[in-house]
What does this fold into?
Amino acid sequence: MFSGQSIVTTSEDKDQFHFKADETLKVIGLLQVFLQYCVQAGTKSRMMVKVDRLSYNFGAYWALKDISFTLGKGEFLFLTGHSGAGKTTLLRMLYGALPVNRGRASVAGFQLNNLRKRQIPQLRRKVGVVFQDFKILPKRTVFDNVAMALEVRGMPRMNLERRVRAIVRAMGLETKSYSTCERLSGGEQQRVAIARSMVANPELILADEPTGNLDFDLTMHLMDIFKQFHTYGTSVIMATHSREVLDCVPEARILHLQDGCIVTDGESSINEENEEDD
Amino acid sequence: MIGQLFRLTLRGIADFGLHPVAQLLTLVAVGMVTLLTGLIIIGLHNINVELLKSRGEVEFQVYWKADTKTEDVLKDWAVVRKLDYLKDFKTFTPENALTELATTLGETGDFSWLADNNPLPYSGLASFAVPPEAQDEGWAARLLTELKSLPGVDKVHYTPFQADLAQGWMTITRVIVWPIIGFLALIVSLVVYNTIKLSLLTRLDEVEILSLVGASPAYVRWPLLTGGFIQGVFGSALGIGLLALVHSVTAQTLNFPPFFIEIQFLPYDQLGIIAGAVTLVSMASSWVAVK
Ligand SMILES: Nc1ncnc2c1ncn2[C@@H]1O[C@H](COP(=O)(O)OP(=O)(O)OP(=O)(O)O)[C@@H](O)[C@H]1O
Ligand SMILES: [Mg+2]
It folds into this structure.
């Protein structure tokens, strides 16, 4: 996946050192190993999410069993699976709402296993979350709900207003900016939730069925926005049931969960998915 | 940082508009608890004042040595007249005393034959009314020593009953008042805590959501703390206002014979302590109420 080796062994390099003694070649060999090491180290820090043999139980019920996967920076990952498969549970663990006791997990450089209490806000400021049940404040306006994500990060008012207005416009909610959220339709509320997850430009977006309440056109429009963030290097994990949504991001990986276990993990090869579903 | 704090404080104030009814009910509840506490403390305070009043009155019978010269006795009297809290000082020369004795005994007592060789010494009856605030421990004993130490004084009699009663009350207050105050504090804390906690139930969603989008605990709590502060200040003000009203209506109800008790309002420092404690408790409650 990473082109570490090719960086060193270009033919040009070889030509330059061709006539030199064996020692030179040895040095190049060492250099090669060193560079490879660097690339590996780079990959490590380029890891956004790393989950290793993660399990979670609600009492006697195991909602996640022995899950392992990694997500590189800038990668797009779909979580699919039937209702109750454990998608939300997995996402909740990733933003520190459920403790990691069995297995290991790290997100955006935070080890979730021994996460200190005061680290939780820091983790959550690196991650934008679209909750399945939105979790917006009904008594506050669209603007306030979206601005909340920036306020908790201590952003100055001027910057904040500009950003909030931009994302609210992108969500097609500019006419509702100052309505309280209790007066919005389900789809509008969902867009507020999405806007809030994106407004702070997080390194990682965790979206739990972000298009569940939207019609086809709006879904496509919002997926474009998600893809835009993805293009600029944001990592995304999106739980979804929708085939349309999966088709929007052909290069994405798909993690298919079933009863808390991963049954497929691979590039979004739509055919393969189709076969499985059929 | 300061700007942030200021904005959060403003938000805490603005948040009163979000659930006005719940907030108002909380305020009334805090006010009522303050009122009840105030009533109990007014009761205690007035009992204390009444007891202190009577216990502050003490009489000393002072006798001078028979051989003291008149001018020395007069000097001593002048000293006594300058003592603090002296209410009355009746003095008797031997001649006065004799006449007084004679009138007291009526016709049977004719002591005119004693006039030339009067055995009675100079004497005086000093009554003091020591106000409650000056009644520190051992005040009566100190007055006694003071009188005894006058150069010409032979002996001092006084009725120990009042002073003992005083000492007794002092002990009782020390033993009883603090448990009562502690009990009151406990009740106020429990009631205010539960009230504030209930009123915050309407806002637990908000607390949860703020923390989910990455707010630090301080960020979440500052507006709540502001709210608790406002509840405390306005609630206790309401309570004290009602207390003043109740007091003004009932102040004279015991002011008839044989009681003659005019119910007194609490002094400012005690009102301040009540208001401060209630405010502190409501702030602490809004801090503790959200995990
Ligand atoms: N708080 C909880 N207590 C007990 N069981 C829970 C709890 N939360 C989730 N579960 C169980 O864990 C399992 C996984 O739930 P989860 O919400 O992760 O499913 P999901 O894949 O997100 O489903 P959906 O597609 O319907 O959102 C379900 O069987 C659910 O009943
Ligand atoms: Mg779910």
